[in-house]
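<derive_structure_tokens>
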Amino acid sequence: MPELPEVETTRRGLAPLLVGKRIKAAIVRHHGLRQPVPRNLPQLLAGATIRKLTRRGKYLLFDCGTGTLILHLGMSGRLWLVKAGAPVEKHDHFDLVLDNGTVVRLRDPRRFGLVLWHPGDPLDHPLLAAIGPEPFSSEFDGALLHRVTRKRSVAIKQVLMDSHVVAGVGNIYANEALFRAGIRPATPAQRLTRARCDVLAEKVRDTLQDAIVAGGSSLRDYVGSDGLAGNFQSQFLVYGRAGQPCRRCGGSIKEIRQGQRATCYCPHCQK
């Protein structure tokens, strides 16, 4: 968390306000994030114009002409607009100040986020180069899922969360997509038929799209670029609902642990 819907919601909120704008200054208050923030980043960004704001997986890419500012929100980060002169709080580690007075602020209490610079093609950066296809792209479909799971005995939920297979699907949306597809999270991936892979790929896309429309999920620190919380958590069918009745069949939602993450499912609706 934040996962793809939260990052995409942030991108959509920021892009109309930032693209074409000139950067006046970059303020780094804490260099010790998951990887060190480059010491010369303020010099690299000062005077640059933001040409595009795109997303790859869970990464935001600010095209600044001479290079790309790469941001990742980590486990607790949020990126939103504040007014010039807004009070700085303890975990506000990075500000991007534009010529028009707009300030884009990164708050990251756990400091697992990233603020990096790449002078070449950002997709060649080591953190991005091995990421799998975007879930909304034509490359991601049932055929791909069927192909990559043939010799994998690992649980299908773990496959969905593998960024080498598909970009941006984290714990929340893997839970939700598997429920929609009627597949138990612990099912060995290689047991899925092509037909079930087709359904699962479709439900991954549907789940992510519904979450984007709802502004993402706000469980802890996440808010959109406008400072407002997302609302998809009110639509959760299984995630975080252990012991509660299934919204489809009325049975009790169960919880197990997979890879140190909570996994929720309905024993009746998911086979």
